[in-house]
Amino acid sequence: MDLFKAIQERRSIRKYKDEPIDDSALEKILDAARWAPNAGNYNSWRFIVVTSPTQNKLLLHFCPGIDDVPAAIIVVCTKPKQKRLKEATRLMCMADCAIATQNIVLSAYSLNIGSCVVVSFADKALREILDIPEDVQPYLLVTLGYAAETPEPPARLPISEIAFRNDYGKEWNT
Ligand SMILES: Cc1cc2nc3c(=O)[nH]c(=O)nc-3n(C[C@H](O)[C@H](O)[C@H](O)COP(=O)(O)O)c2cc1C
Fold first, then answer.
1. Closest protein CA for atom 31 of ligand 1
2. Does residue 174 form part of some domain?
3. Whole domain around residue 15: which residue ranges?
4. Alpha-carbon gap, residue 137 to 152, rounded angstroms
5. Judging by beta carbons within 10 Å of its beta carbon (0-12, 13-18, 19+), is residue 121 exposed, middle or buried?
6. What is the total count of domains within the chain?
7. pLDDT in tens, 58-84
8. Confidence of residue 93 (pLDDT cuts 50, 70, 90)
9. Ligand 1: residues within 6 Å at CB?
10. Residue of the CA atom closest to atom 29 of ligand 1
């Protein structure tokens, strides 16, 4: 699949068919995640792949950002080297997780699997349900499943409003 087409046509999917995803597809998605650029190549991400329908149904109660039971949820976490993170390291870990998440959603799309990034979840409940240790921090969830909806593309700001050439505020396309 053409990368630009995937970037433009991927949509957040919030309604899923009741159909499981093969482990081979999930493994491809995880492989895409681990090839993401990451600060210092520390590979500090950890990914919890929740495929149990019981766990996913339970998680829904503690994740207001999820509307429907997906076939799988990937919990994108960081396991930093140091216990007490400096602000700069914390930001790097978050950036690593965000970039890996982009690889997850794009690779899922290329496999015809719908996805939605979710930031709205209860940290404590998630930790308890998934047995996440203290030194691991979940940052984002990605719901995955076969789409039961075809959302219209939401508007984006035009490039002229968000990109500048040489100095902030100077027109990009002069
Ligand atoms: C960091 C982040 C957090 C998000 N959290 C949620 C969420 O909690 N619930 C939800 O339904 N969508 C969530 N989304 C999906 C966005 O709403 C969606 O990407 C945006 O509306 C643009 O739509 P599109 O992905 O179809 O282009 C999140 C996306 C990102 C990148």
1. 117
2. no
3. 3-148
4. 33
5. buried
6. 1
7. 999 999 989 999 999 999 999 987 767
8. very high
9. 11-12, 14, 65, 116-120, 151, 154
10. 117
